[in-house]
């Protein structure tokens, strides 16, 4: 036998999956299951609610296509990857896509006592909505809660925040977990800012950085978060330092280039001098030979 619980605290699709663990986001694969869940929703929604939206375990992967001819339109139940369903009820046809990740919500209208209309709607998985979990009854642990104002004991699932919240709204309670004498009188008190109830109804820190509230880097802290970015002084220093480094690099390059040009000029001048010296020596050698020949001729004539 299955047990369903409604969580009114909004969460993204992936976060809802985690919070349902060791259970799962609920399926509505049969007409009976859909009737049970709608009855549960009717029992927990406040009278002033006119409509509702809950994450259920219905998702389409990025590499799969929307198929209008199928009951689930190409979406699959996250519990077992099945596309089987007796329920073919969409309030809005999913947008045709084969590349985008899409998740489905159970959406409907409420008249204060019963659900008057309902169906599935698909959209991005990052939006936060309330959600409905499902798990086997034998896996459920229970609180035994006794009203401090008198009354009978009630069994409350330790992972069912809604049921415990409804009971707490009637009167304060003293709770014992699985029969152990654990004082949980503050279980009915709201959490401090920056904290929320987990599946065991304990106040735990909210990771605000998951929603990227900062322009730059975000650091989660107990009950809050910090945005880390460059201050004005750092930016001013960068404006001065970077152009200075560029100017130094340009100057070094110019000096290297000037050195290469000077060296080439000196080598060319030295080469020219060597050539002139060789030409002069050749000329002198030629003139010396001619003078020797004339002297020899003059001696012969004498």
From TrEMBL:
Chain ranges of the C-type lectin domain: 1-134
Subcellular location: Membrane
A single GO cellular-component term on record: membrane
Keyword Signal applies: yes
Membrane topology: Single-pass type I membrane protein
Keywords, sorted A to Z: Disulfide bond, Lectin, Membrane, Phosphoprotein, Signal, Transmembrane, Transmembrane helix
Name under which the protein is recorded: C-type lectin domain-containing protein
Native source organism of the sequence: Myripristis murdjan (pinecone soldierfish)
